[in-house]
Amino acid sequence: MNPDESEDESVFQRTILEPGQVKGGSSGSPKLLYILSFLSAIGGFIFGYDTGVVSGAMMLVRKDFQLSNFWHELIVSGTIGSALIFSLLGARIADQYGRKATIFAASVAFTIGTFFMGLASGPVTLLLGRLVVGIGIGFASMGVPLYISEASPPKQRGRLVLLNQLFITGGQFVASVVCGVFSDSKEGWRYMFGLGAIPAVIQFFGFLPMPESPRYLVEKGRLEEALVVLTRIRNSFDNVQVELEEMKIAASQDENQRQISISDVMAVGSIRKALIVGCLLQIFQQLCGINTVMYYSATIIQMAGVENESTAIWLASVTALINMVCCFAGLYFVDSRGRRPLLLFSLGGVALSLFLLSGTFFLMNNHTPMAQNYSPTSTLPCEQARSCGECLNLACGFCLDVQSNQGICIASNSSSCLSDTSSWIMEACPSGYAGLAVFIMCLYLLFFAPGLGPLPWTINTEIYPTWARSTCSGIATSVNWGSNLFVSMTFLSMISLIGQSYTFLFYGVVSLVGLLTFYITLPETKDRSLEETSSLFDSPESKGLRYSKLDGNPFNANGSP
Questions:
Q1: Dist. CA 493–CA 291, nearest whole Å
Q2: pLDDT category, 402, cuts 50, 70, 90?
Q3: Which of 53, 78, 145, 263 has most Cβ atoms within 10 angstroms of its Cβ?
Q4: Strand order in the sheet with 406-410
Q5: In which band, very low, low, confident or very high, does the pLDDT at 534 lie, cut at 50, 70 and 90?
Q6: CA 105 – CA 93 distance, rounded (Å)
Q7: Other CB atoms closer than 10 Å to residue 88's CB: what's the count?
Q8: CATH superfamily for domain 31-211
Q9: What's the rounded Cα separation, in Å, for the pair 182 and 188?
Q10: Which residues pair with 410 in a beta bridge?
Q11: CATH code that applies to domain 261-367+431-561
Q12: Closest CA to 154 of 88, 216, 239
């Protein structure tokens, strides 16, 4: 044996010849692979639960704490800002301490943050809990897909990684049901937030016996441990020695590229083009308004005229269910029809749905009870509202006389509306279009979930060469969180400034711009190896970021000219 050869290297060579001598070996049942994938994906479930629960819980929190739009947006968006920061820091933790440690840290943050939220005595404590939960989401959003991907065999990798996305939508649906159950309870929002600790605790203790990622172990030179892990998570007929050798070769190649910087990536024209497209995918995914629907779905339904809070929360659960079910459609169409046509079809449907939703709110605002104290020359802002809809857009209250279906717009509170036949309105004006608005929200998710939801993540793993993939994917992920933060922080402010109709019209126009952008710039990656897809942006035909010529009609099922 070469005297310079490490002990781990010699052990690796012996085990290639004598695999039966590996300590801790098993019969090779892949059950452990499914268990670790399931336990990892609980991080996605908690992420989805937090996304879904905030929609219903904040309706009750806003009333109990008398929150302004600013505080409402800050509490909702605090988690996103925290996740943006810690998703970037999570990469360092994963490289230094391991993928398993990153998921452990996410579980701890989820648990602590959830208790802070459930026991919050005011908006500051609640915000603190949301920030801590954001740490967990940041770690989980980066660590979970990485851990599952590195532990999975090639033929099962796509399906197992997608498990995380399915758990996210499942968490959103479960959260909406929990919100409905506790919507009539006193301080029910505490139970809504607090129950999120249960899956976090399950993940923490369930993950204790789980192995580290075999790829991480190889990168750290712990070859004997890596072989033991592979033996435990593969079938008995799988050639784990060959797989380990491939990991070892890949790790030695990656070693040469480990110091790649953003400037190195941006210096290569083809990669710069790919990164622009990858970041635009993440930007348009968020700017089409998806998280206004998920974070504020119950609030939007109430704006549509559903006055009862419990009813609005239960209707929000229908949208969450549709979002989860439609994710399964993407499983079929992404491989049978291709990425490009599915994304363009999804964007077109999203744009159409948003235009319809904008028109529905326009009809609502023009068919709401009229304000009897309307005076366009008044110095009081509330008296410049012509109807109930305009009154609420000005952040005023509307005192409605139920018998005459008219009222007055005033900057006061319910004590100024004392008549037995009067009703004080602050959230939603009576409307006959509420059912139509809920239907269009469901239509929106029907188009979004199979395409625009998962494809930005999928395509971003395919269009970069190996040496730049992690750097570019990290940049695109941070762009997604930044865009998410922008939308969630501005939604209610835009509603107050320009009204519901123009807000959704804005999102619709953005979606239409996205459709045109990707018709020009997005190549098809279906049925192509990673080497082929990473070279698409090197094509002579791709000058000026024009890629539609590569695949002809974007709605061609075969993706051919």
A1: 15
A2: confident
A3: 53
A4: 370-371, 406-410, 397-401, 422-425
A5: low
A6: 9
A7: 16
A8: MFS general substrate transporter like domains (1.20.1250.20)
A9: 5
A10: 397
A11: 1.20.1250.20
A12: 239
